[in-house]
C-alpha cells in the first residue's frame, strides 16, 4: 500500500466511515451494497478481464456470480465508489476418500491498471483469506503465475497435476491396449453431450477419490458455461464415459474434466481431437496417479508435463485440524497453534503421550499433506505425522487431492 493510501473496512450496506488516514482513503468491502453496485462492479471487471463481452463473466462463473452465485466478493473502492481492486472467494467442501476438507478457492483477482503497484491486490487477497478464516475454512487455494505476489502472503505451491498430450498415434496405441483388457464388449457410441446427460455425468463424477461436493442443481449449471465442448460415450447400459474440453476463456485445448471407463473416455477424446485439433492433438488434465485413461496414454509413449497443482495456505488452523482427524486418523488429539504471523500459522500435532509433539510451519504441513513442489522432500515429515496421528494401517500421504477443470476457478 502506498504512503498516501489507507484502507477502511466496511461491511456491505454498512454506514460510511469517517476514519481516514493520508490523502486518499480506500474502502474495502465484502459483498455488494446493491444490485446496481453489483452491475457496476461486474461491468468494470469485464472491461479489464473480458473487454467488449458484456455478461461474459457471469456466464463463465454461474456458480459464483449472478443471482444464484455463492461467491463472496472482496472489493476495494476509491472515494466516490469507483472499484479499483477485486477478489472472489468460493467456500467449498472437498470430499477426499469420503472425508471432508473445508476450503476456499480465490479467483478473479484484479486491480485497475491505473492503480497497480500500490499493493491493492495483496489487500483484497488478504481480505479473502481472513473471510475464509472466519468462515471456518481450513485452507485457501488459487491459481496464478505471480509468485512474487502470493509467496510473500504465505502461499506455497502444493500437489501435482499432469498434462498428457494426446496425439493420434499414442491415442491409437492406448485404445488398442485397453481393447485387449478384460470386460470390453462392443465399442460405445460417442455423441455430443445433451442437457439430459448431466445427471449421468454427475453420477460418474461421484466415483472420484476427490471432488467438490455440489448438489446436482448447482453442478448442472456448468452446462451453460460458454465454449464448453462435451462428448459422451453411450453403451448398452447407458452413459459409460464423458470428456469435456474448453471452458470460457480458459482451458481451450485441454480436456479438463472426464470420467467413466478408460476406453469410453478415450473414445470421447478421439471425437474431441477430430473436431477441434486433428493436426496437433489435445492435452488431458489428470492427477499424477495410475488411473485410466491417463496411465495407458503414458505407457503408450504420450508426452507429458508435470506442474504444481495450486497455490495453498492455511486459513483456519483449527478447522484444518478437525478435518485432518477425518482425513488421517481418529483417536489422538490434534491441536492448532497460530504463530506470531497470521501468514505463517503453525500446527502442533500431539499423539498419545508416548512421543514428542510434532510442530510444523504451515508450508511444511501442506507439502506433506498434499504433495510437494520441486526440491522439497517431505517423506520424513509424512512419516512423523502419520505416526503421531496413529493413522490406520495403509494410510498414505500425500492425500489424493485434485481439482478438476469444472471445479477450478
* Helix count from the secondary structure assignment: 12
- CA radius of gyration: 23 Å
Output the CATH homologous superfamily of the largest domain: Gcn5-related N-acetyltransferase (GNAT)
Portion of residues in helices? 25-40%
CATH class of the largest domain: Alpha Beta
Shape: globular
Number of strands: 19
Explain this structure to me?
This protein has helices at residues 35-49, 56-60, 120-134, 147-150, 168-179, 198-205, 216-219, 262-276, 294-299, 317-328, 362-370, 379-389, and strands spanning 5-11, 24-30, 72-77, 83-96, 99-111, 139-142, 156-158, 161-166, 189-192, 210-212, 229-235, 238-247, 250-260, 282-287, 304-307, 310-314, 334-337, 346-349, 358-361. The longest helix has 15 residues, at 35-49. It has three domains: 5-155, Aminopeptidase (3-Layer(aba) Sandwich); 161-307, Gcn5-related N-acetyltransferase (GNAT) (Aminopeptidase, 3-Layer(aba) Sandwich); 313-389, no CATH class. Residues 1-23 have low confidence and may be disordered. The protein contains twelve helices and 19 strands. Helix 11 packs across helix 12. The radius of gyration is 23 Å and the shape is globular. Helices cover 28% and strands 30% of the residues. Helix 3 links the parallel strand 5 (99-111) and strand 6 (139-142).
